[in-house]
UniProtKB/TrEMBL annotation:
Belongs to the ABC transporter superfamily. Residues 8-238 form the ABC transporter domain. The lineage of its organism: Bacteria, Pseudomonadati, Bacteroidota, Cytophagia, Cytophagales. InterPro entries: AAA+_ATPase (IPR003593), ABC_transporter-like_ATP-bd (IPR003439), ABC_transporter-like_CS (IPR017871), P-loop_NTPase (IPR027417). This is ABC transporter ATP-binding protein. One of its GO terms (molecular function) is ATP binding. It holds the Pfam family ABC_tran. Keywords: ATP-binding, Nucleotide-binding, Transport.
Length: 309
Protein backbone atom coordinates (compact mmCIF):
# COMPACT_ATOMS: atom_id res chain seq x y z
CA UNK A 1 0.00 0.00 0.00
CA UNK A 2 1.18 3.45 -0.84
CA UNK A 3 1.54 5.67 2.15
CA UNK A 4 -0.22 8.87 1.12
CA UNK A 5 1.02 10.64 4.23
CA UNK A 6 4.46 10.77 2.69
CA UNK A 7 3.34 11.47 -0.87
CA UNK A 8 3.19 14.74 -2.73
CA UNK A 9 -0.34 15.47 -3.91
CA UNK A 10 -0.91 18.00 -6.66
CA UNK A 11 -4.56 18.86 -7.20
CA UNK A 12 -5.97 20.89 -10.10
CA UNK A 13 -3.07 23.30 -10.32
CA UNK A 14 -3.24 25.99 -12.98
CA UNK A 15 -0.95 28.89 -13.81
CA UNK A 16 -1.19 31.68 -16.38
CA UNK A 17 1.69 34.17 -16.64
CA UNK A 18 1.12 37.91 -16.95
CA UNK A 19 1.86 37.73 -20.70
CA UNK A 20 -1.15 35.41 -21.12
CA UNK A 21 0.78 32.14 -21.52
CA UNK A 22 -1.04 29.39 -19.66
CA UNK A 23 1.84 27.21 -18.50
CA UNK A 24 -0.20 24.76 -16.40
CA UNK A 25 -3.74 23.53 -17.12
CA UNK A 26 -5.45 21.85 -14.21
CA UNK A 27 -2.55 19.57 -13.26
CA UNK A 28 -3.23 16.71 -10.82
CA UNK A 29 -0.58 14.18 -9.84
CA UNK A 30 0.07 11.82 -6.96
CA UNK A 31 3.79 11.44 -6.43
CA UNK A 32 4.87 8.67 -4.06
CA UNK A 33 8.26 8.47 -2.29
CA UNK A 34 11.10 7.37 -4.56
CA UNK A 35 12.32 8.64 -7.90
CA UNK A 36 9.65 10.25 -10.06
CA UNK A 37 10.21 11.45 -13.60
CA UNK A 38 8.46 14.49 -15.05
CA UNK A 39 9.12 14.17 -18.75
CA UNK A 40 8.27 16.69 -21.44
CA UNK A 41 9.71 18.83 -24.23
CA UNK A 42 10.98 22.36 -23.76
CA UNK A 43 8.18 24.74 -22.95
CA UNK A 44 5.92 21.99 -21.57
CA UNK A 45 5.60 23.62 -18.15
CA UNK A 46 8.06 21.52 -16.17
CA UNK A 47 10.01 24.39 -14.62
CA UNK A 48 6.81 26.23 -13.81
CA UNK A 49 5.57 23.19 -11.90
CA UNK A 50 8.96 22.63 -10.23
CA UNK A 51 9.22 26.26 -9.09
CA UNK A 52 5.68 26.05 -7.76
CA UNK A 53 6.47 22.88 -5.79
CA UNK A 54 9.63 24.57 -4.51
CA UNK A 55 7.47 27.44 -3.12
CA UNK A 56 9.16 29.97 -5.41
CA UNK A 57 5.95 30.93 -7.16
CA UNK A 58 2.26 30.44 -6.54
CA UNK A 59 -0.34 28.73 -8.68
CA UNK A 60 -3.45 30.71 -9.68
CA UNK A 61 -5.57 27.77 -8.64
CA UNK A 62 -5.21 24.39 -7.04
CA UNK A 63 -3.69 22.75 -4.00
CA UNK A 64 -0.44 20.98 -3.23
CA UNK A 65 0.19 18.82 -0.19
CA UNK A 66 3.44 17.29 0.99
CA UNK A 67 2.20 14.82 3.58
CA UNK A 68 0.30 17.03 6.00
CA UNK A 69 1.88 20.25 4.78
CA UNK A 70 0.00 22.67 2.56
CA UNK A 71 2.73 23.73 0.13
CA UNK A 72 1.00 26.90 -1.08
CA UNK A 73 0.11 28.20 2.37
CA UNK A 74 2.86 26.81 4.61
CA UNK A 75 5.90 27.86 2.60
CA UNK A 76 8.24 28.27 5.56
CA UNK A 77 7.51 24.78 6.89
CA UNK A 78 7.92 23.28 3.42
CA UNK A 79 11.25 25.07 2.91
CA UNK A 80 12.58 23.42 6.05
CA UNK A 81 12.26 20.05 4.39
CA UNK A 82 12.81 20.94 0.74
CA UNK A 83 15.84 20.49 -1.47
CA UNK A 84 15.81 22.26 -4.83
CA UNK A 85 18.41 21.96 -7.55
CA UNK A 86 17.53 24.48 -10.28
CA UNK A 87 18.57 24.17 -13.92
CA UNK A 88 21.37 26.64 -13.52
CA UNK A 89 23.04 26.24 -10.20
CA UNK A 90 24.93 29.46 -9.56
CA UNK A 91 27.96 29.28 -7.29
CA UNK A 92 30.35 31.79 -5.83
CA UNK A 93 33.44 31.06 -7.94
CA UNK A 94 35.89 32.20 -5.30
CA UNK A 95 34.57 30.03 -2.49
CA UNK A 96 35.62 26.43 -1.99
CA UNK A 97 33.03 23.67 -1.92
CA UNK A 98 33.67 23.13 1.76
CA UNK A 99 33.21 26.81 2.65
CA UNK A 100 30.07 27.31 0.61
CA UNK A 101 28.42 24.09 1.77
CA UNK A 102 29.11 25.08 5.36
CA UNK A 103 27.55 28.48 4.68
CA UNK A 104 24.41 26.93 3.17
CA UNK A 105 24.23 24.53 6.11
CA UNK A 106 24.06 27.49 8.49
CA UNK A 107 21.26 29.00 6.39
CA UNK A 108 19.44 25.68 6.56
CA UNK A 109 19.50 25.95 10.35
CA UNK A 110 22.35 23.57 11.15
CA UNK A 111 23.75 25.83 13.84
CA UNK A 112 25.58 23.20 15.85
CA UNK A 113 29.17 23.26 14.62
CA UNK A 114 30.02 19.57 15.17
CA UNK A 115 26.74 18.38 13.65
CA UNK A 116 27.27 20.71 10.70
CA UNK A 117 30.80 19.42 10.12
CA UNK A 118 29.57 15.85 10.13
CA UNK A 119 26.67 16.62 7.77
CA UNK A 120 28.82 18.51 5.26
CA UNK A 121 31.55 15.86 5.31
CA UNK A 122 28.99 13.10 4.66
CA UNK A 123 27.53 15.03 1.72
CA UNK A 124 30.91 15.89 0.19
CA UNK A 125 31.84 12.23 0.34
CA UNK A 126 28.48 11.09 -1.01
CA UNK A 127 28.76 13.44 -3.98
CA UNK A 128 32.35 12.35 -4.54
CA UNK A 129 33.73 15.85 -3.98
CA UNK A 130 35.63 15.21 -0.77
CA UNK A 131 39.03 15.21 -2.46
CA UNK A 132 38.16 18.48 -4.23
CA UNK A 133 36.59 20.18 -1.23
CA UNK A 134 39.32 22.83 -0.89
CA UNK A 135 39.25 23.69 -4.60
CA UNK A 136 37.52 26.91 -5.68
CA UNK A 137 34.11 26.33 -7.25
CA UNK A 138 35.06 28.55 -10.20
CA UNK A 139 37.39 25.76 -11.33
CA UNK A 140 34.78 23.02 -11.09
CA UNK A 141 33.48 21.25 -14.21
CA UNK A 142 29.76 21.32 -15.02
CA UNK A 143 29.31 17.84 -13.56
CA UNK A 144 31.14 18.74 -10.36
CA UNK A 145 29.00 21.87 -9.99
CA UNK A 146 25.85 19.78 -10.41
CA UNK A 147 27.04 17.31 -7.79
CA UNK A 148 27.83 20.20 -5.48
CA UNK A 149 24.28 21.41 -6.14
CA UNK A 150 23.00 18.03 -5.00
CA UNK A 151 25.06 18.28 -1.81
CA UNK A 152 23.46 21.67 -1.11
CA UNK A 153 19.99 20.37 -1.97
CA UNK A 154 20.42 17.40 0.38
CA UNK A 155 21.35 19.49 3.42
CA UNK A 156 18.95 18.78 6.25
CA UNK A 157 17.72 15.48 4.70
CA UNK A 158 14.76 16.92 2.76
CA UNK A 159 11.52 14.98 2.37
CA UNK A 160 11.09 16.56 -1.04
CA UNK A 161 13.95 16.88 -3.50
CA UNK A 162 13.35 18.68 -6.77
CA UNK A 163 15.88 18.36 -9.56
CA UNK A 164 15.15 20.44 -12.66
CA UNK A 165 16.82 19.41 -15.97
CA UNK A 166 19.98 18.24 -14.23
CA UNK A 167 21.82 16.53 -17.07
CA UNK A 168 21.26 19.09 -19.83
CA UNK A 169 24.75 20.57 -19.72
CA UNK A 170 26.70 17.46 -18.77
CA UNK A 171 28.97 15.34 -20.93
CA UNK A 172 28.09 11.61 -21.09
CA UNK A 173 30.51 10.49 -18.36
CA UNK A 174 29.40 13.28 -16.00
CA UNK A 175 25.80 12.43 -16.75
CA UNK A 176 26.26 8.77 -15.75
CA UNK A 177 28.03 9.79 -12.56
CA UNK A 178 25.28 12.24 -11.72
CA UNK A 179 22.47 9.74 -12.37
CA UNK A 180 24.25 7.16 -10.23
CA UNK A 181 24.37 9.66 -7.42
CA UNK A 182 20.64 10.34 -7.68
CA UNK A 183 19.89 6.63 -7.78
CA UNK A 184 21.57 6.18 -4.42
CA UNK A 185 19.26 8.62 -2.69
CA UNK A 186 16.86 7.04 -0.28
CA UNK A 187 13.49 5.71 -1.24
CA UNK A 188 12.11 7.55 1.76
CA UNK A 189 11.83 10.97 0.25
CA UNK A 190 10.03 12.19 -2.84
CA UNK A 191 12.58 12.89 -5.55
CA UNK A 192 11.27 14.58 -8.70
CA UNK A 193 13.46 14.63 -11.74
CA UNK A 194 12.26 17.04 -14.38
CA UNK A 195 13.79 16.41 -17.79
CA UNK A 196 13.30 16.29 -21.54
CA UNK A 197 15.72 13.34 -21.78
CA UNK A 198 13.88 10.02 -21.91
CA UNK A 199 16.89 7.94 -20.80
CA UNK A 200 17.20 9.91 -17.56
CA UNK A 201 13.74 8.68 -16.62
CA UNK A 202 13.98 5.14 -17.98
CA UNK A 203 17.19 4.51 -16.08
CA UNK A 204 16.05 5.89 -12.76
CA UNK A 205 12.38 6.49 -12.20
CA UNK A 206 9.80 3.99 -10.96
CA UNK A 207 6.94 6.33 -11.78
CA UNK A 208 6.55 9.05 -14.33
CA UNK A 209 4.31 11.64 -15.84
CA UNK A 210 4.48 13.06 -19.34
CA UNK A 211 3.64 16.74 -19.62
CA UNK A 212 2.99 18.64 -22.84
CA UNK A 213 1.65 22.16 -23.35
CA UNK A 214 0.84 22.43 -19.68
CA UNK A 215 -1.20 19.24 -19.56
CA UNK A 216 -0.48 15.80 -18.15
CA UNK A 217 -0.80 13.31 -20.99
CA UNK A 218 0.23 10.22 -19.05
CA UNK A 219 0.74 9.28 -15.41
CA UNK A 220 2.01 5.75 -14.94
CA UNK A 221 4.47 3.30 -13.51
CA UNK A 222 7.40 3.29 -15.91
CA UNK A 223 7.50 -0.48 -16.41
CA UNK A 224 3.75 -0.77 -16.83
CA UNK A 225 3.68 2.01 -19.40
CA UNK A 226 6.32 0.18 -21.45
CA UNK A 227 4.59 -3.19 -20.98
CA UNK A 228 1.31 -1.73 -22.25
CA UNK A 229 2.95 -1.18 -25.65
CA UNK A 230 4.13 -4.77 -25.88
CA UNK A 231 3.39 -6.20 -29.33
CA UNK A 232 2.23 -2.86 -30.71
CA UNK A 233 5.49 -1.31 -31.83
CA UNK A 234 6.96 -2.19 -35.20
CA UNK A 235 9.96 -0.90 -37.04
CA UNK A 236 11.32 -0.60 -40.51
CA UNK A 237 14.25 1.08 -42.25
CA UNK A 238 13.42 3.45 -45.08
CA UNK A 239 14.89 5.71 -47.66
CA UNK A 240 14.14 9.20 -46.42
CA UNK A 241 11.83 10.11 -49.32
CA UNK A 242 9.54 7.17 -48.42
CA UNK A 243 8.70 8.64 -45.04
CA UNK A 244 5.64 10.72 -46.10
CA UNK A 245 4.08 7.63 -47.64
CA UNK A 246 4.53 5.61 -44.45
CA UNK A 247 3.18 8.53 -42.44
CA UNK A 248 0.02 8.49 -44.53
CA UNK A 249 -0.54 4.78 -44.07
CA UNK A 250 0.63 4.17 -40.53
CA UNK A 251 0.75 5.72 -37.10
CA UNK A 252 4.39 6.79 -37.00
CA UNK A 253 5.75 7.05 -33.47
CA UNK A 254 9.22 8.24 -34.38
CA UNK A 255 11.61 8.52 -37.29
CA UNK A 256 15.31 8.98 -36.87
CA UNK A 257 18.42 8.78 -38.96
CA UNK A 258 20.55 5.76 -38.24
CA UNK A 259 23.62 5.04 -40.33
CA UNK A 260 22.31 7.03 -43.29
CA UNK A 261 18.88 5.39 -43.30
CA UNK A 262 15.69 6.33 -41.52
CA UNK A 263 14.59 4.07 -38.71
CA UNK A 264 10.84 4.32 -38.28
CA UNK A 265 8.80 3.04 -35.36
CA UNK A 266 5.07 2.73 -35.86
CA UNK A 267 2.18 1.93 -33.53
CA UNK A 268 -0.11 -0.84 -34.71
CA UNK A 269 -2.37 -3.28 -32.92
CA UNK A 270 -2.15 -5.61 -35.93
CA UNK A 271 0.70 -6.88 -38.09
CA UNK A 272 1.34 -3.96 -40.46
CA UNK A 273 2.90 -6.14 -43.16
CA UNK A 274 6.12 -7.81 -44.14
CA UNK A 275 8.27 -4.72 -44.42
CA UNK A 276 7.92 -4.23 -40.65
CA UNK A 277 9.28 -6.22 -37.75
CA UNK A 278 8.02 -6.19 -34.21
CA UNK A 279 10.29 -4.55 -31.61
CA UNK A 280 10.49 -4.60 -27.85
CA UNK A 281 8.98 -1.29 -26.82
CA UNK A 282 10.97 1.08 -24.64
CA UNK A 283 10.21 4.31 -22.82
CA UNK A 284 11.07 6.34 -25.90
CA UNK A 285 8.20 4.59 -27.70
CA UNK A 286 5.92 5.40 -24.78
CA UNK A 287 7.02 9.04 -24.84
CA UNK A 288 6.66 9.59 -28.59
CA UNK A 289 3.42 7.65 -28.94
CA UNK A 290 1.99 9.64 -26.06
CA UNK A 291 3.14 12.91 -27.60
CA UNK A 292 1.76 12.01 -31.03
CA UNK A 293 -1.54 11.01 -29.45
CA UNK A 294 -1.71 7.33 -30.48
CA UNK A 295 -1.34 6.48 -26.89
CA UNK A 296 -2.54 9.88 -25.73
CA UNK A 297 -6.06 8.94 -24.78
CA UNK A 298 -4.56 6.23 -22.64
CA UNK A 299 -5.03 6.93 -18.99
CA UNK A 300 -3.30 5.04 -16.16
CA UNK A 301 -6.40 2.95 -15.54
CA UNK A 302 -6.44 1.85 -19.15
CA UNK A 303 -2.77 0.92 -18.94
CA UNK A 304 -3.43 -1.12 -15.82
CA UNK A 305 -6.23 -2.93 -17.61
CA UNK A 306 -4.07 -3.61 -20.64
CA UNK A 307 -1.32 -4.99 -18.46
CA UNK A 308 -3.73 -7.20 -16.57
CA UNK A 309 -5.29 -8.60 -19.73
P1 LIG B 1 9.76 23.80 -19.41
O1 LIG B 1 10.47 23.86 -18.10
O2 LIG B 1 9.02 22.51 -19.62
O3 LIG B 1 10.65 24.13 -20.58
P2 LIG B 1 8.47 26.26 -18.60
O4 LIG B 1 7.69 26.03 -17.36
O5 LIG B 1 9.80 26.93 -18.47
O6 LIG B 1 8.60 24.90 -19.42
O7 LIG B 1 7.59 27.13 -19.60
C1 LIG B 1 6.23 26.84 -19.89
C2 LIG B 1 5.65 27.97 -20.72
O8 LIG B 1 5.54 29.14 -19.90
C3 LIG B 1 6.50 28.39 -21.90
O9 LIG B 1 5.63 28.78 -22.94
C4 LIG B 1 7.29 29.57 -21.39
O10 LIG B 1 7.65 30.44 -22.43
C5 LIG B 1 6.31 30.21 -20.44
N1 LIG B 1 6.97 30.90 -19.30
C6 LIG B 1 7.81 30.35 -18.39
N2 LIG B 1 8.20 31.23 -17.46
C7 LIG B 1 7.55 32.40 -17.79
C8 LIG B 1 7.53 33.72 -17.21
N3 LIG B 1 8.21 34.01 -16.10
N4 LIG B 1 6.77 34.65 -17.82
C9 LIG B 1 6.06 34.36 -18.93
N5 LIG B 1 6.04 33.16 -19.52
C10 LIG B 1 6.78 32.17 -18.96
Amino acid sequence: MENHNESLLIRKVSKTYANGVQALHNISLTIPPGMYGLLGPNGAGKSTLMRTLATLQEPDQGQIFLGELDVVNQKEEVRQTLGYLPQEFGVYPKASAEELLDYFAVLKGLTNRAARKEATETLLRQTNLWDKRKQKLGGYSGGMRQRFGVAVALLGSPKLLIVDEPTAGLDPAERVRFLNLLSELGENSVVILSTHIVEDVSELCTNLAIIHQGRILLEAQTQQAVAALQGKVWRTFLEKNKLPEVQREHQVISAKLLGGRTLVHIYSQMDPGSSFERVEPDLEDVYFSTMTGFYGQTNPQQIKEEVQR
